[in-house]
Amino acid sequence: MIDLLQRTVGRLCTGTALGLVVLLFMMAESQAWPVPGAPERDAPAVSAERVRSLADQGDRDAQFTLGSMYLLGNGIQQDQSQAAEWFRKSAEQGNALAQTSLGAMYYLGQGVPGDHGQAAEWYRKAAEQGEASAQYNLGNLYLLGHGVEKDEAQAMQWFRKAAEQGMVLAQFNLAGGYAEGRGLPRDDREAAKWCRKAAEQGDVTAQYQLGLMYEAGRGVEKDRREAISWLTSAARKGFEPAKTLLLKMGVDSSK
Description:
elongated, Sel1 domain protein repeat-containing protein, mainly alpha, 255 residues, Serine Threonine Protein Phosphatase 5, Tetratricopeptide repeat, Sel1_AlgK, Sel1-like
């Protein structure tokens, strides 16, 4: 069985960037979110001028939307510095997505000087408001010791908070913590439980790992049929390790 933590660490080390990808999707969606005085969601997108007008009046949601428009270049010329400025205005008024966005920009050094300590500070503000992407990213900082003192137990606590909200990457990372006793007591059953939650959301790596757990009888009762089912799910999404393992098991995943 391929070590679950080995696969997890690869995800953790890129976790903040992955969290930003999730966040960017949210921000892209935000272009259709209603802001005060804007049309309903199924109406045409709000113009940059209208958003700026509301942002200039101090509306924190409009400030966040304007920041995301600058970051993505949606309806306005892309400008990371302007994005950071508007995220900051919104974040200082308590908008959790803006706080998370600003944290990500500090972490990556985009639009602001790179500063892991500032990233941790803004992630924490959003995480304490219950924002799952911030909880996940703060967990990564604790795991890696970026901007905070390395603390695997704290990392897993934040991953749990995000995982309980259904964030698939956090669920997989929590499974890895249980699988290898990293920041948590080792518990194969808990590892399998959280791996299943991620797998059921379609996460290909979790599907592969859950298949391995069924094949090895680790944390679950050994079940070749279940193993093949989960490995096939991963293989049909193009996950090569699953295809290779199925061939070794004498199973053609293309059928």
